[in-house]
């Protein structure tokens, strides 16, 4: 019933989207905790290829740069709730709470608006105009496309082709 001692990591990691049946329940538990701590829950990932499984949570402090204190507060509060909820069915787990970093995927309309003008990488499931990866300055998105300024040209990449849009820390 008690998880391992929480690990306090506040590092910039790139997370790929991983689907696990416990993610909705953990998100439901973690979101109000983050809000109470004036943090934003960015992502939840469970790595089952580790023993014990690792639960990685990304949080962001919208008021200032996310710090170690933010990660520690979230880790302590969430660990207590997870242990009481028995989400992991009495099994052991490792909890890692970190900040999302700059090379992370953009996921919602608010992020696409906040990062307009920033350098991004766009990956597609299949080639669009003979390319599966695009780099440029984010101009926005709507229901049909993500819009980039690519080498001075406006490009509209259809959303149904896009597998990932992430900030590009190489500064395109």
Summarize the structure.
The chain has 172 residues and is α+β, with helices and mostly antiparallel strands. It has three helices and nine strands.
Describe the structure.
The protein is elongated and about 55 Å long. It has helices at 23-36, 68-85, 109-114, and strands at residues 7-8, 40-47, 54-60, 94-98, 119-128, 131-141, 145-150, 153-158, 162-167. The protein starts with 6 loop residues before the first strand and ends in a 5-residue tail after the last strand. The protein has a 5-stranded antiparallel beta sheet with strand order 8-7-6-5-9. A 4-stranded mixed beta sheet has the order 1-4-3-2. The longest helix has 18 residues, at 68-85. It is α+β, with helices and mostly antiparallel strands and 172 residues long.
How do the strands and helices of this protein lay out in sequence?
Blueprint (H helix, E strand, L loop, with lengths): L6 E2 L14 H14 L3 E8 L6 E7 L7 H18 L8 E5 L10 H6 L4 E10 L2 E11 L3 E6 L2 E6 L3 E6 L5
Parallel strand pairs: 1-4, 3-4
Antiparallel strand pairs: 2-3, 5-6, 5-9, 6-7, 7-8
